[in-house]
Amino acid sequence: MRKYIKILKIEFLKSLQYRFEYISELATTALMIAVNIFLWNAVYLASNTNEIASYTRKDMAIYLTVTNLLVSIFSFTEITRLGHLIKSGRLTSKLIKPYSVKLENIITMMGSQIDRLFIFLVIIIISRFIGLKFNLLLLILLVISSFVMHAFLKGLISCFGFWMLETWPLRGLFNGIFYILSGTNFPLDILPKPIYEIVKYNPFAIVSYAISKTIQNNFSNFEIVKYIIAALIWIIIFNSLYSLLIKKGLKTYEGMGS
Amino acid sequence: MNIKTYFALVKNSLQSNFAYRTTTIIVFFVSFIFFLLEIITGFVYFSFTDSLGGLNKMQYFNLIITMNIILSLYETFCLKGLEEIFAGINEGSLDYSFIRPVNSFFYYIFNGVQLNSLASLVLYSALQIFLLSFQDISIIQIILYVFFIILGAWYVTMLNYFIACLTFFFERANSLMDITEIMDSTLSKPKGIFPKIVEYFFSFVIAYLLIYNTPIDILNNKYSVIVLIYYVLQTAFLSFLLYKFWYKSIKKYHSTS
Predict the structure, then answer these.
(1) CA–CA separation, A196 vs A194, rounded Å?
(2) Which residues on A lie below 8 Å from B49 (Cβ)?
(3) For chain B, which has fewer Cβ within 10 Å, the N-terminal or C-terminal residue?
(4) Radius of gyration of chain B (CA)
(5) What value of ipTM does the predicted structure carry?
(6) Chain B residue closest in CA terms to A169
(7) Bridge partners of residue B52, in order along the sequence
(8) What would the pLDDT profile of B2-33 be if each residue is shown by its tens digit?
């Protein structure tokens, strides 16, 4: 276990090295939040109301701020890593090391985003003590289970690198699916009820919509627990598929270029 | 760079597109998924209101499709070289381009075509023609609309290459590449939703809002000739500045060869 903690620590320290990335990410996140709020403000103004589908302007602003902040924690940037290792043959050097490549891949991906997770947790803990009312313990459990679930999903997607020549288009593909199914631009519960019932427990909704609604104290404890259970079920599904694909993928791996 | 060189680059890029068929198809779907997201989001907004930032539903969808046409046009003809620059800086492998007897600025801007973006361009253009067939538009408006779509694509190209030039100065500046992508998706909204100061900044300092809103203003017959002239002049000035900046930037390049 110690070796995986070391990998996590190294990735965390690596991510802290690039301050320029932080600044540009902060600026683009702020822009995304601002534009989404402007858009919804225009909807409130034009419809001459202060409440849309039980969301006041303030509720909507908080919702959009949280979901857009979560985008940087739950990004798909690292899904191309395994593909690069396969294409360059550098995976061979990982295979001969005394650890599981499957776990190393997951831990590395977690490590590269853990700084953002840490900042987010600090923000929610502070906001809990300065006025926002939510169940802090359940929220932290939901965020952490979502984080692990997302890492397993990324691990699963990264296995496509065994069969694809280039994996970078997958980043755009899954970011696109994320934006549609996560409720980043609008709360999912304003969709027609049958559609909402279908999409509400999808993995993208858990990491964005569910966390934001929990912070806004719109979910009962029972509902939050249901989302945590949903995340755990997704972890089991993604882990099984990930194990299967990495096993099949390694059989096709030729170590070209190593 | 002459036309013969350009066609050779186009031929190479098409062959590469066919060799990486899966990538080409996935990238086409990525673009379509984001388009779908914009359309779904548009329907959500208009289920609560009849007007958004001064645009009705039809005008809003005109804006979304126009934004996609402008970006597809830019990606079809000018994106390939940009990717070569970003990869080449990281790997220190731009030498081969710089020693060629061609103008490196134009060599990168017109480095080939992207088939997936061309497919998107055809799809969105057909959609826009279909939507326009329901609207009362004069020939002059159509000519101006097409001209400002091409100008918009050129402006986006200039901004992206300006960012690419910055990567010669900063370490691991790949995240810069995302900035223009996010600017494109966030500032392709109706200009009426923004506070006045933001609207003026992104119209007259960096003309992001003009890129996507000007063609729509033309279709809606709500354009100002002075603003159109200013936009054309700003694009010309930016092109000149970028040309000078490109040659300053490549002096910062370090080869690994």
Answers:
(1) 5
(2) 42-43, 46-47
(3) C
(4) 19
(5) 0.80
(6) B27
(7) B55
(8) 888 889 999 988 888 888 787 788 878 878 88
